[in-house]
Amino acid sequence: MDDSDIQCTLCSKRDIQNAAVIWCAVCDEKLCQSCNEIHKYLKISSSHEVTALDVYKKLPSFISSLKQTCDSHEEHFKLYCPAHREPCCYKCTTTKHKTCHGFQTLDSLIEQSQSQFLDLECTIDELNINIETVFNNRTAALIELDDQVLDLAMHIKKTGEKIREKLESNEKEILQQLSVVHSKYKAIFENTVEELQTMKAEIKSLQKNIEEMKEFASEYQFVLGSQEIRLKTKKEKDNFCKYFENDHQLSQKNVALKFTPGQILNQDIFLGTFGC
Ligand SMILES: [Zn+2]
Ligand SMILES: [Zn+2]
Ligand SMILES: [Zn+2]
Ligand SMILES: [Zn+2]
Q1: In the β-sheet with 79-81, what is the strand arrangement from edge to edge?
Q2: Is 29 in a helix, a strand, or coil?
Q3: What's the farthest any 2 CA atoms get from each other in the chain?
Q4: Ligand 2 being an ion, which residues bring their Cβ within 5 A of it?
Q5: Which-ligand-closest: CA of 98?
Q6: Cα 5 from Cα 21, distance rounded (Å)
Q7: Nearest to 64 by CA among 73, 55, 72
Q8: How far does residue 114's CA lie from ligand 2's centre (Å)?
Q9: Rounded to whole angstroms, what are the CA distances from 181 to 91, 185, 188, 232, 256?
């Protein structure tokens, strides 16, 4: 709203459009320049204190909209009723406020309010400082909270990474051990199977020799041949018996490989715990 939007109250009553420039607190009227001249020199209003309209407009609206005259009796407010917490005129004390007590004159209130207003200003200033202090404190706490969460999240992530790295290296190590043991026993078992294969072939050949001797050999050939076969049989038997001697035990023993999972699987929480 600019200044020209507010019209002179007196001119408006005569259907004349004139922008108001001052406000009289006593008359509670907004006046144009020419009405102000008359207002200034009229005996009844010459002592009225006026305020430039642009200053008046800077007041908070709940202040500038305060009424100065009584609507019911068209008289200036002179009293203040503490029960209704509102100003009133003398006539009001016999009507709306007839049962009210402890009226104060507005003049005495104005006198008191000078010092009370200073107190009010002090109270507001103090409150402002206190709010500012707590505000700064909580703002700092908010920033610190965010920082803490960021740090912790990083720490938790790094711990997880370290555990995964350790698990991976542990897994590789165990698989490596398994592979070494596998190679060792595989070589022994393969060697044994190969030797037994040879023995089986040798025994089969001896059995064949015996069948052939029984069928075709002369007595002389049978005697000497039997000796030869006996020697070969003893050799195979000795070879076979070696598997049951101490230093050959591995070649006929089954191997039970075993893996025991670490304690970590028995724990519900192995990354860590969080608390505050
Ligand atoms: Zn006017
Ligand atoms: Zn006036
Ligand atoms: Zn009244
Ligand atoms: Zn009252």
Answers
A1: 86-88, 79-81, 104-105
A2: strand
A3: 177
A4: 24, 26-27, 45, 48
A5: 4
A6: 11
A7: 55
A8: 23
A9: 115, 6, 11, 36, 11
**Torsions phi, psi for 92 (to 5 deg):** -60, -30
Of 60, 87, 91, the closest CA to residue 73 belongs to: 91
Nearest CA to 257 among 154, 182, 174, 159? 182
Angstrom distance (rounded) from CA 205 to CA 228 = 13
**What does CATH list as the number for 1-66?**
3.30.160
Residue 59 Cα to ligand 2 midpoint, Å, equals 19
pLDDT at position 134 is 97
| Centre of ligand 3 from the C-alpha of residue 104, in Å | 15
Among all bound ligands, the one having the nearest atom to the CA of 72 is 3
Q: What is the pLDDT of residue 181?
A: 93
Stretch(es) of the chain classified as CATH 3.30.160: 1-66
pLDDT block averages, 10 residues each, the chain of length 276: 73 94 88 94 90 88 84 91 94 95 92 84 95 97 97 95 93 95 91 92 95 91 92 93 72 80 76 82
With beta carbons less than 8 A apart as the criterion, state whether 241 and 249 touch.
no
Contact between 202 and 236 (Cβ < 8 Å)? yes
Bridge partners of residue 69, in order along the sequence: 76
Q: What Rg, from alpha-carbon coordinates, does the chain have?
A: 59
Determine the Cα–Cα distance for residues 207 and 111; give it in Å rounded to an integer. Answer: 142
Cα of 44 to ligand 1 centre, how many Å? 17
